[in-house]
Amino acid sequence: MQPIQAPFPATRLRRTRKSGAIRDLVQENVFTVKDLIWPVFVCEGENHEEPVPSMPGVFRRSVDRVAEAAREVFDLGIPAICLFPYTPGDKRSADASEAWNPENLSNRATRAIKAAVPEMLVMTDVALDPYSDTGQDGFVIDGEIVNDLTVEALVKQAVSQAEAGADIIGPSDMMDSRIGAIRAALEAGGHQNVMILSYAAKYASAFYGPFRDAVGASGALKGDKKTYQMDPGNSDEAVRLVARDLSEGADMVMVKPGMPYLDICRRVKDSFGVPTFAYQVSGEYAMIQAAAQNGWIDGEKAMVESLMAFKRAGCDGVLSYFAPAFARLAG
Ligand SMILES: NCc1[nH]cc(CCC(=O)O)c1CC(=O)O
Q1: Does the chain have fewer CB atoms within 10 Å around its N or its C terminus?
Q2: Which residues form the active site (predicted)?
Q3: What is the pLDDT of residue 266?
Q4: What ipTM was predicted for this assembly?
């Protein structure tokens, strides 16, 4: 695009910034509550809520409380919720079989939300890290995170989530070929309308720290996730991954983390024109909240500005822990 403009003073670009009314009128992007997916942490217990220390304002909630919170935020206009289980230590194992237990926390929460708020979209997480004893997203054999065996487990996990009533399956594991395998199993199992939002370009990032605390994976995790999550130095590779996941049957794709990777969001949107999401991850949330708590930035303004940035970068929607706060502010 090559905007044409007369030389100063015929053109004064400040004219269209003079008042709130004209600024509203010429604003190019809008971020609304309808663009949000709210990630929540689910724990065992009843009528129970506990704060996540490294994420001020975020809680782990028992299944009944998650369903209540879902009702509340849906009434505020948030269309979708994404579930992350805090699996008790005795349910983590080498074979990660709790991942496809129909009665696991995630599946119980899905059913409870669907019963309380049938119209709300429920998204679930496909990866073994909440269930494995290594904190890795896949099986570890002789020090290697093995791909094909892991994909077999991920397929079982995804099918159990669809059976529990999930609307959107979110594979966050970054194994090769899992989208195609999950898509085929969903078709075969009669879940042809279940969507896949692929964590297609997920980077090996330091910004996931608080999340790993929230789901209790920090203690377990040995080493890093660099053999499956992306190198922060890469951009062409993100395009290849998105192309691959779309060709295997992903309905929507995600870039993660969000704010440090807005260039990737824009590139993905421009290259493919598919529904594109960003995950404003735990560390991004924690940074803004920590600075706000110290009085160093205005937390509300930073939240709104950060969410708008995703729209400007081409995202259709955002997963953000700020979802309820944004909805209350906007409402
Ligand atoms: N499957 C793991 C998973 N799913 C979502 C997040 C991070 C989300 C966040 O930081 O908010 C992670 C962490 C990781 O890859 O270690």
Answers
A1: N
A2: 202, 256
A3: 98
A4: 0.97
